[in-house]
Amino acid sequence: EKLLEVRNLHASVKEENLKILKGVNLDIGYGELHAIMGPNGSGKSTLANVIMGNPRYKVDSGEIIFEGENIVELTTDERAKKGIFMTFQNPFEIDGVKFSNFLLSAYRKIHGDSESFAQLNKQIDEILSELVVSDNFLNRFLNVGFSGGEKKKSEILQARFLKPKLLILDEIDSGLDVDALRIVANQINKIRESGTSILIITHYKRILNYLDVDKVHVYTDGKIVKSGDFSLADEIEKNGYSVIAG
Ligand code: ADP
Ligand code: MG
Ligand code: MG
């Protein structure tokens, strides 16, 4: 059994009746890391949002099977509780919500309250020490006034702390300098070691160089058009999407 099976998924933007996903098929096994690469505007973020259950999108047909269960009708919160987490290409700023409080309450919503706040804070501190961020990172409001790089570190901190079964990273590498890229890649590897399956959406091969990639998928116009191993990322970088997609 796979962790995630996306079957012939078609989906639209609800308000505009605009069809974006046009038959996505994707299987991700337990502990695997898959990369999706594709041009801007092809619907990669939409795929992530539809898997997560963002209510702005409507599934027209097809299935999203997670641990053997079709989750298409579930809310985002229910999917989060089942162990799906996504990081955003453009992370939200939530004024008035302290980052540390946000983390703790998100953790308890998903995992319950068997661990004490002291235990959880200790885990957060360990991750923080690896992230290289300013001392007051957690005392600030969530992502408010964070630099681009800090927002990406904030997202990866949430991902590591919340221990999802499936982690979707939407352009976590965009806008990162070399040092931050290495730190974020290192966190992704640690998340992976804990058993999490990962779907990483990216434009660039450079982050994949740090990771152990099981599969690369080329995604254009709302569907996966080609899949292969890491060498496909080389091919994309050399020749561009259009040549590969045919
Ligand atoms: P990608 O992540 O591959 O760049 P997106 O999924 O962000 O692509 O967007 C695909 C297309 O769908 C774009 O043309 C985008 O403008 C449109 N789109 C996505 N989400 C919405 C939305 N909520 N409202 C209107 N248009 C949307
Ligand atoms: Mg884009
Ligand atoms: Mg996108």
UniProtKB/TrEMBL annotation:
The keyword Nucleotide-binding applies. Residues 4-246 form the ABC transporter domain. One of its GO terms (molecular function) is ATP hydrolysis activity. The keyword Metal-binding does not apply. This is FeS assembly ATPase SufC. Transmembrane segments: none annotated. Belongs to the ABC transporter superfamily. Ycf16 family. Pfam families: ABC_tran (PF00005). Keywords: ATP-binding, Nucleotide-binding. NCBIfam families: sufC. The gene is sufC. SUPFAM superfamilies: P-loop containing nucleoside triphosphate hydrolases.
